[in-house]
Structures are given as C-alpha cells and as structure tokens.
Amino acid sequence: MNSRERILARIGQALGRPGDPAPAGIEGHLQSHPRGPRPVLEGDAIARFRERAARMASDVAQANAMTDVPGVIARYLEQQRLPLRAVCWPALTRLDWRAAGIQTEARAARADDLVGITGVFAAIAETGTLMLLSGPDTPATVSLLPETHVAVVEVSRVVATMEDAWDRLRAERGAPPRAVNFVSGPSRTADIEQTVTLGAHGPYRVLIVLVGGA
Amino acid sequence: MRVGLFVTCLVDLMRPSVGFAALELLKAAGCEVVVPQAQTCCGQPGYNSGDRAAARALALKLVGEFEDCDYVVVPSGSCAGMIRVHYPTLFRDEPAALERVRRLSARTYELTDFLVSVARLDAPPGEFHGVVTFHDSCSGLRELGVQRQPRALLARMPDLTLVEMREATTCCGFGGTFAVKYDDISTRMADKKCAHIDASGADAVVACDLGCLLQIEGRLRRRGDHATMVLHVAEVLAGEEGACG
Amino acid sequence: MRLEAVQFRRKAAEALDNERLQRALEKFPSRFVDTRAAALAELGNTEQLRDAAADIRARTLRDLDAWLRRFERAAAARGATVHWAEDADEANRIVTEIARAHGVRKAVKSKSMVTEECGLNEYLERQGLEVIETDLGEYILQLAHEPPSHIVAPVVHKSKEEIAELFEEKHRKPRKDDIAELCREAREELRPHFLGADMGISGANFLIAETGSVLIVTNEGNGRLVTTLPRVHVAVSGIEKVVPTLEDATTLLRLLPRSATGQAITNYVSLLTGTRGAGESEGPEHCHIVLVDAGRSRMLGTELEPMLRCIRCGACMNHCPVYQNIGGHAYGWVYPGPMGAVLTPALAGIEQALDLPNASTFCGACSEVCPVKIPLPDLMRHWRERQTEQRLRPRRERLLLRLWAWTALRPRLYAVVARAVARLLHGLGGSDGLVHRLPGASGWTRGRDLPAPPGLTFHALYRKRRGA
C-alpha cells in the first residue's frame, strides 16, 4: 500500500466503513450545491456595492457609458499625479484610450507597470468585492503587480452575493478558470503592531469605475 | 415547592454566610427549603482534573440526595453548570443512569436564575447602600446564561446602584486547581480584573460564584485594597454580608 | 518547527515578565475582540451561520475519504498532481522531489501553518534550496529566526522598534521608524524574490471537492503573487481542509475573516484551479497539491473529531484570557491558545504537551467565539482524562485528588475534615482576617491572600441553628 491508500483506508476504518463506497449523498450535494444562510441585504445592490467598496478603501467613480470610461480614468490618474500610461486587459482594447490621453499596452503586467486597467466578471454588493477571472484576454497580473489598479464595472455585472456570482460563473463559463480572484480594495497588512497599512505586496490603490445605472 | 439547597463545598468551608443568605432568599420567595445533610461536593474538581470515575461517583451520590426535591438550587454557576450540563455527559453511555441523572439535571438551577425564572422573587429582603459592580462568572454565564438575572435582582434594591466595569465577562483567573497550578498566570488575570473593578469606582464587587470571589478578594487585598467589599450576590440580596460566623 | 511545549511553565513565566510582549498583548481586546464582535453583529444571523458552518465541516468529515477522492479526481482533471503524505517527513520529501524534478533553485512561500508543522523551510534549505517567506509577518520571523506566536498575526509579539532594528541590520538600509515605510521596504526587498522564484509554495484555506480548487485568503496579495508568477505552484494542505462546494466555502468565508481579524472579507480570496490555460501568458505551468495527514486521520472517529472542523481563524486565542496574558510562544509549537492545547497533543503526542490542556480555566470564551462551534474546553478535558488514565499527572496531584474523592464520598468523615480545615484556616488568618501564607498551597498565596473562613462550616452552623 502506498501513502494514499493507507491514509484513505485509515479514514474509512475510523468512519466505520472500510472499503470504498462513495456515500450516496455526495453526488446529490454537488448537483444541488445548496446555499447557506445569507445576510439580508437591504436596499439597492448597486448602492450597497458602492458603499461597501468605499468601506474597503476602494475609490469609486461613475461613468455614464463605456465610451466615457477612458476620460474618467484619465481624470483620476491626473488627480493622483499618476502617469497616463497603463497596462490593460486585451479585453479592453475596444475603448478609445488615446482620445483620453492614456497610453495603454494590452498584455499581462510586468514589474515596472505603474497602472493596471481591468474589467471584472462580476462585482459583489454584499462586500464591495470585485471578481476577476484569469484568461488570455484577462491576465491576472494586471490587477496585482501595478501600484494602481483600475477596474471597470458595468452595473449589469453587480450581483448581491458570492453565491450569485458562482451561479453566474457556472451559467456563463461552466468551470472556473485557472484563477478566480476576489479583490476587495488595495492590498494591506496589519502584521506590524496590528496597524493597518495599505499597499503590501499588491496595489496601493484601487479605483472602481461604475458604468451606467447612475 | 420543595427546593433542595446544595450549598457547595466551597461555601460550606469558606463562607457559610452565602449558604444562609441563599436559604433566606429561597424562603422569601416562598419555597420550602431542605438542606440534605450528607451533601459534600458536586465532583467538579475531579471532573476538571480528568478523573471521570471520581466525578461519576460523586454525581450519583448527589443525585441520590436530591432526587426527592422539585428543584435543586445552587449558589454557584460552576457547580450548577456541573450538575445541569456536565452530569449527563458523564453518563452518556449508560441509558438507565442517564435517564435518572437527566431528570435531576433539568431541575437544577443557579440561585439567581431560579429566583428570577422560577420562584419570581419580586423584592429581595436585603438592603444595600452603595455602588456595586458585577463580575460575570464564566460557567454561570456561558453554560447557564446567567447574566441578566442577578442584575435584575440587584436592580430591585432601591439603595443600590449598579455600574458595569470593563470586560465584566472576562475570566478572573480562578479556574479551580488552575489557580494553584498556574498561579502566576492566574494572578495576572486577577490583576486585570482588579484594575477594572478599581476603575469602576464601585464600593463592592459582586459575583455569583465563591471561587471568583476568593480569587478577586485575595488579589485585591494583596494589592493593598482593603476597602472594596467583595460579596456574593446572595449576601447582597439577603442583607447577610459580613453576618454570621 | 521545533516542539518545545514541555517548557510551557518556564516560557509562560518569561512571557509574564516580558514588558514589550505585555504591551503588544494589551491590544488584543480592542484589536481582535471588539472588531470581531462588530463584524459579526452586522450580519444579524451569526448563530445560524455558525450552525451552518459547523454542519458543513462535520458532514464533510463524516465522508472525508469520499470527498478527498472526489477532490483528487477534479484536481487531476484540471492538470494538477495530487500527492499524499503520511507525515511531516514525507511531505517534506515530496516537496523536495517536486523542486528537483522542475529544476527549482528558489522558492517563495505564502503563509501555511501545515508547512510550519512539517518544518518545510528548514528541510528545503538543508537540500540547498533558497526559501523566502513573503507574508510580512512570516518574513520578519524568518529574518529574526523566530517561530510565529499567532496563527493569523504571526509577529504580534514584536514591536515596530524591534522590526526597525531587524530591517536596518538585515537590509543594510537606513533605519525607518514609520510602519508604512517599514512595509514599503519589505515590499521592495521581496519583489525581486517573487519575480525570480521558480516555485511558489502556498497553504490552502479550503480545498474545493466540486472543482478541484485550492482556495486561499490573504490581505497582502503575496498569496496571489506566489501562486501566479513562479512556473511551479505547490499547495500544501492538511487532509481536513476539503469542503464539498463553492457555496459551502462561501458560508465558511462569511465567518473566517470576521472571526480572525474582524474583516467582512479579506482583500484577496483566490480560487486556484489547475495549471496555466491555453493561450495564457502567465500562471504556473505545473501545479502540485500535497495532502498531509500527519496525525489527522487518527483523530477521526474519536472524541477529538470536532477539532478537525477548525478553520484556523485564531478567534479562540484572541479571546483566551490565558493567551492574552502569555502570548503564543509559551505554547511551544505551531498552534497556540485553546486550539493548540487540543491539537498539539493530538498531532505531536500527549506526553509532549502535558501542560497545554491543563493551562486553562475552562472559562469557555473560546468555544463561545469558535465559528465552527468546536467544544474546546470539552476537548481539553478529554486530554486531561487521558493524562489521568495514563498516569501522566504528578504523583502528588493524583494522590490529593484520590484522597479528596474518597473523603467526599464519606459524608461523616468529610464533615470532620471540613470542620478541621475551617478551624485551621481560621487560625491562620491574621488580625486582618487574611491568610498570607498557606502551607501546602503556596501557589495560592504567592500572589494572593486567602480570606480566612469564620471557623465553622455551613453545615455545622446549620445544625446548630436548627438545634437551637
């Protein structure tokens, strides 16, 4: 017997059913994937998302339509005295960045990129959280390596809870991609004297541009 | 209503006034009180030290002594919790004994819980002039939900003012044999409790468990505080503080 | 990690005298207790959630073998390789072999308690690998050659001045005194390591059987870097971390960060499934998952099974009045506080940790806050009972207990003894009514007086009154 077999045999023995009978409930539970208790979220999901995202120290800006997004981002970068130069998701190249004065490169991020622009798969109102899926056109490093992360969120992507996001993932993608990243504000640490400091290994700031629904 | 009073071994030995105060309060609430004379200890020291056999023997002894009472009332949250919560687990593999133990466990109450929830004592007979702060004893609080009951009773005393100290529900560091085995940690825990009592400005600290009171008074006095009174809630409610001896 | 739990008493005494540590520990009530309470209060259904969370963990453990098989199948289908380790040594060997097979020279690591159990870093270093801890707290400890003192806030025992000194010495850069500047300096030191590492080693907060995924929560983002940049990702996890579905994990996630740090959610929650996909220019090309038993399966089917529900939030230690006074190092191994008092004897051996399950007042604060409702005092009592059965308690203690029980079962004798002791203690009381020194129980009077009893027992007085 190898370690795998020994461990599994020991577990089966301890549980009082040696051998390998797949208990009946397992496939049923996977099929139905029941939801646990969820908090009651009062009011409008988009307003809740906005409020929660701010509480997690994300900056939130509004754009009326996708075409306005580059302008909104340009203004934010200028306000923050950041360069108008960014790495962005290949999925976002259809926007007219040049008109807003932003120089973009569509690729995965490198260590020296200062600003990264991404979309999202969903945004979760309960906690003000962004949900990003990795993929060839949506590289995960863009939301991770630069000191500033800008996320473009169309209001149609706002869902109430993480459970709603999983359902959307199953419906639209089937299985999860290599990485599903939930992002709630800039990276932070409280390891030194339990004092919260923004900007640990990931971004120092996160701008969320909400598109539509204003 | 025939109530069996289990005074506890600690009260028997260290502070009989608590037992008489409890007796007084139960009578004031209209109960017929019996005090079985063969009672000794609920078995908690053995149980918490890992000696299950000793705990079981003492549990059966206690059950036998109180079986004919409608209720068992205990002026201690930890001893009441022992009987109410832990006795059944001692006999979980013996259906016959378990049934018998359960019947008694279900009728066992911490004193203030009994006075508020069952006997409905409206007017505590004692008098107390001054400011008190209340320390929540761990077992009573977390095993039996004793928190509002003693406060409700104290609130019915016209000349008594209750002020809450910080971290009233944090352990005082007694913990039975813990207090002697790990005396340095235990003393530090008591120190923090004493500081909160001190900061509350109360004339007296009150609790439902004599173990906590010995711990708190022992440390307060060693710290040089000889003024703050350290009282069992029964003593305050019955007006028995300092009496008897 | 070296096991030093047998030195509990000495280390606890040192901790009580360590002023820097005491200052750090003073922050626990406000930083951990109050924030947790506030984060849970806003949910409005904490008890319902705790019940659901406990139920998910308990049910999964009842079919643990089946869920692990299901997880393995799903992970393999996505290109991950699942390894099984009986003990720490085998886990270390597996990781080393993976490193060798992929020509790894440098590994970056995010926080993982099971690898602390295994002593993985030291093992890999002995094999000639460079291993860098990247969680800020763990990085500081690696520089200082110290073990963690808390499972969530590993460096809670250190002041910023100590860290400033350490950075100045190790980084050879001008001393920084501001916490934000210290954090930036660590970030700048660690970035090149992330970029240059061949292998990333992470733990797993949960393994998702449904999707074959590893789920990791972090705040700093180092967990993301470790699992994204290097070409090899190795996740090391205890076998008990498996949960069935994404929804089950979500229920647990509502409680984990709230219980740990009072956050509604951690900054990052990453669900990692398999290897780099077709057309992707990033992400690990190789993914290995090491499932470590190391004593866990032996707990199944015993009284200790509920301990396997633990999700490592640290709430039990944050709320433990003993931990709050002595910190984590006194517990002498990876897991401090109440969960350590139960887990250390289970994983490392009962005789290796005799003090741990005894050094508790059974106040119950731990089980009151445990998100998965582990009855921690009951499980500590379990160990006390095993110690008694195996005659591991000191002879004097056993003798006293036996004498006490024997007497308490004989009411007449007991009454005589009680009266004698009451008289004796009364006599020892001075003019102030206090016993200052108690022969035979000097532990009590070292730091406390004993209010002297009035001299007659309750039962003696009661008989007198009734007779009168």
TrEMBL record, chain A:
Highest taxon of source: Bacteria
Source species: Candidatus Muproteobacteria bacterium RBG_16_65_34
Signal peptide: none
InterPro entries xref list: FTHF_cligase-like_sf, LUD_dom, NagB/RpiA_transferase-like
Name the record gives this protein: LUD domain-containing protein
LUD domain segment(s): 96-211
Region (Disordered): 14-38
From TrEMBL, chain B:
Source organism superkingdom: Bacteria
One of the Pfam families matching this protein, by short name: CCG
Protein name stated in the entry: Fe-S oxidoreductase
GO cellular component, one term: cytosol
Annotated source species: Candidatus Muproteobacteria bacterium RBG_16_65_34
GO terms for MF: oxidoreductase activity
Residue stretches making up the Cysteine-rich domain: 3-84, 132-216
Annotated TM spans: none
UniProtKB/TrEMBL annotation, chain C:
Keyword entries, A-Z: 4Fe-4S, Electron transport, Iron, Iron-sulfur, Metal-binding, Repeat, Transport
Any one GO biological process: lactate metabolic process
Domain 4Fe-4S ferredoxin-type: 300-331, 350-380
Molecular function terms from GO: 4 iron, 4 sulfur cluster binding; metal ion binding
Domain of life: Bacteria
Pfam families xref list: Fer4_8, LUD_dom, LutB_C
Identification of the protein by name: Iron-sulfur cluster-binding protein
